[in-house]
Write a structure and sequence with these properties.
Blueprint: E1 4-8, H1 11-21, E2 25-29, E3 35-36, E4 44-45, E5 51-52, E6 55-56, H2 61-73, E7 76-79, H3 85-98, H4 115-123, H5 130-157, H6 166-184, E8 189-199, E9 210-217, E10 220-221, H7 227-237, E11 242-254, H8 262-273, H9 277-289, E12 291-292, E13 298-299, H10 314-328, H11 362-365, H12 371-387, E14 392-403, E15 406-417, E16 447-459, H13 468-478, H14 486-495, E17 499-502, E18 505-508, H15 510-522, H16 529-544, H17 549-570, E19 580-584, E20 591-597, E21 600-604, E22 614-616, E23 619-624, E24 631-636, E25 642-646, E26 655-656, E27 659-664, E28 671-674, E29 682-684, E30 692-694, E31 697-698
Length: about 700
């Protein structure tokens, strides 16, 4: 029997903190929530002040029994779930199940899973924070009421199986509104003129050339709207001589970006690593809970990953300072420690996301990490280090060139001191104008030779579709959702079929538009950005103790109930036609239609219920089976993971997670296969052969 029982959410986290606490502590995992609202009914008593009717989650009876047994044998039970609203609620439910007084000193929280942080946390346990729990309950009950009240209307008026989420509906609206902007956009024509120049007397070499753009005349900028206007300017330029009339050199300093918050981590991982938000959070959670590093055991590599704060501890700032001085030199340190301001709405309970140990450099632990874990850990590590470094300093040279009555302009940038850019440069959502490169040495009065003048037609572009990264950024700016919910929101609207993804951009499906229009007509507050942001602010007020959670729910429902009643009576039924395929039904001859089920799209006969024929959608790989020579097909597991199998099944049992290329290994003769999860990597299927091809190179 252990003196103390500690309960956390995950087995990995249990292993990581277990090694810090000694033999008197026994650490177990709850595997997330043990109690929740049941799925079979709304389970919220609206008439009784929105009392939630929690039940034990199905399938967790044995775990609950084990936790109760261990709790009864321990002298003291500590609840060490994550330090946020969700974690507080899990601890509250555990206290209820295990008979622990919620006002006793049973709650332990830490922002990073390090020996010092964990041991310090156990020195000062606290009671369960009921304001945090009530904030969780308010969100949970709000979402349940909205979902379980609106969804039946969608089933009746649109399609069975649909659901409406409170925050997800607003995110869907953002995407629908953006698509409408794009469709309504009317492009406008404009032209640009640029010249290729070289200093008079210099040899015509690439290194001596530079480009300058037409600006206007001495009275100001000229916007060229038509080809005729561009041709007139070109004709005037035929007679001109070109000379430098102004050279201005300035020094520009650029400060680094703040350490990561949840939102900025998701955005940057999308830009730089191509990770969907759900993948970023999955990997970040693994890094936070702990990775097995061999001799040192399970080790948490980063601080808590659900935060909208850019604050860091004094200890972390000092560790970064030492690391920078030792690795790059004192000149890379700023004169004063960098302190970043949080957004007005940010909750400053946690630090920014940063490495837990400056001694664990990404390359030092790379062998113990998966490729994706390494990439994300390096991103977090480098961003944190850069955030504590000196400014980068650039020399900017702006040059004006006279051409008769016209002016051309160009600029060049050189790095005077790299500062933080030696470690990290933030990614951008939009492609930037990169014409500011190096210029030859130019002075006032220099005569230039014009090698070429080009004019080009352009059209103004509509706003871009949201990507997962820019949608998260928009939600954060509008105050929709919180760090713990961004990834779930983005995943849910795609899983429900309201939003599709094309080349990393999000677009509304026909179903998404229909549901969004219905929501705008009948539940305008639910899909109103400002209303949703105000509701999020009220949730923050519950956490701060300035308002009761039941009052927030009452105020919301007083406006929501009449909308429900009106929608039941007035919303007209919408008929959605299933897309028709070019595949005939082999039983009745009708052209089959595309349907969406639990495991994705499939083909079905439109003659249902008379004809119940269905077919899987077959996607050919394009190469033959290495065992029998028949065509290979892509298939999916029940969880949606793609794999390759032979069309000759069940006679041929060939299947693989990788894609056979159709080529033979030049070293051993086995077939080559492309690793589906690693881009262009091609390997030999013979595990004993090390032949590898990547981007045309052999290893």
């Amino acid at each position: 029997m252990s003196d103390y029982l500690v309960i956390v959410e995950s087995p990995t986290k249990a292993k990581t903190i277990g090694k810090f606490l000694g033999k008197k502590y026994h650490v177990l995992a709850s595997a997330g929530h043990l109690r929740d609202l049941p799925k079979s009914r709304m389970a919220v008593d609206i008439e009784n002040d929105f009392e939630p009717q929690y039940t034990n989650i199905r399938g967790k009876a044995d775990l609950i029994k084990e936790l109760k047994k261990n709790a009864s044998e321990a002298n003291k039970v500590f609840l060490a779930t994550d330090p946020d609203r969700e974690g507080e609620a899990i601890s509250w439910h555990l206290a209820y199940l295990l008979g622990i007084d919620k006002n006793s000193s049973c709650r332990v929280t830490f922002n990073e899973i390090t020996q010092n942080a964990v041991r310090d946390a156990f020195k000062s346990p606290r009671k369960i924070d009921m304001e945090l729990v009530d904030t969780y309950q308010a969100r949970r009950v709000l979402d349940r009421v909205v979902g379980y009240k609106i969804s039946p209307i969608l089933w009746k008026k649109v399609k069975k199986g649909l659901s409406a989420g409170r925050v997800q509906s607003v995110a869907t609206r953002l995407i629908c509104d953006r698509e409408e902007e794009i469709e309504a956009f009317i492009p406008k024509e404009y032209w640009s003129i640029e010249g290729r120049f070289i200093k008079n007397g210099e040899k015509v070499l690439k290194k001596n050339e530079f480009v300058a753009k037409f600006y206007g005349d001495k009275s100001g900028k000229i916007n060229i709207g038509t080809g005729e206007e561009a041709e007139k300017i070109l004709k005037d330029l035929e007679k001109c001589t070109y000379s430098v009339v102004s050279v201005k050199e300035t020094e520009k300093k650029k400060a680094p970006s703040a350490p990561f918050t949840t939102s900025t981590l998701q955005q940057e991982a999308s830009r730089k690593l191509g990770f969907p938000t759900s993948k970023t959070m999955l990997i970040a959670q693994q890094l936070y809970e702990g990775i097995d590093l061999g001799k040192s055991g399970h080790t948490g590599l980063v601080t808590y990953i659900r935060t909208d704060s850019t604050r860091i501890s004094d200890e972390a700032a000092f560790a970064a300072k030492e690391y920078i001085a030792e690795t790059y030199g004192n000149e890379y340190l700023p004169k004063n420690r960098r302190i970043y301001k949080n957004r007005n709405s940010s909750q400053d309970a946690h630090e920014a996301i940063r490495p837990s140990y400056m001694t664990l450099k990404p390359d030092d632990v790379r062998a113990k990490l998966t490729n994706d874990q390494y990439k994300l850990y390096k991103l977090i590590f480098d961003r944190f280090i850069a955030s504590q470094m000196a400014d980068a300093i650039f020399n900017i040279c702006n040059v004006d060139i006279s051409a008769g009555k016209y002016i051309f302009k160009t600029s060049g940038t050189t790095v005077k001191f790299p500062g933080f850019t030696k470690v990290y440069i933030e990614g951008k959502d939009e492609k930037e104008d990169e014409d500011a490169g190096k210029l030859p040495e130019l002075g006032n009065g220099d005569i230039l030779n014009c090698l070429d003048i080009l004019n080009q037609q352009h059209f103004t572009q509509p706003p871009s579709r949201y990507s997962e990264a820019t949608l998260v950024k928009a939600m954060e700016e509008y105050g929709i959702g919180r760090p713990s919910t961004y990834a779930t929101i983005v995943s849910t609207i795609q899983a429900r079929g309201y939003v599709g993804k094309e080349k990393k951009t999000l677009y509304p499906t026909e179903l998404g538009r229909i549901v969004n229009n219905l929501m705008k007509q009948s539940f305008k507050d639910i899909v109103d950005v400002e209303f949703t942001a105000q509701l999020e602010s009220q949730l923050d007020e519950i956490e701060q103790g300035s308002v009761k959670w039941t009052k927030v729910l009452r105020d919301f429902y007083n406006g929501f109930a009449p909308e429900l009643e009106k929608a039941e009576k007035e919303v007209e039924k919408v008929v959605i036609a299933d897309p028709v395929s070019d595949v005939p039904c082999d039983k009745c001859g009708r052209m089959m239609v595309y349907k969406t089920g639990r495991f994705g799209k499939f083909l079905a006969c439109p003659g249902f219920p008379e004809c119940r024929n269905t077919k899987a959608i077959i996607e050919e790989v394009g190469t033959a089976c290495p065992d029998c020579g028949k065509m290979l097909l892509f298939r999916k597991t029940k969880s949606g993971k793609r794999y390759v199998s032979c069309s000759g099944y069940p006679d041929c049992k060939f299947s693989s997670w990788n894609i056979p290329t159709g080529d033979k290994c030049p070293e051993c003769g086995s077939y080559l296969e492309r690793v589906m999860t690693r881009g262009g990597l091609v390997v030999c299927s013979n595990k004993e052969c090390k032949y590898t091809v990547k981007k045309g190179s052999k290893k």
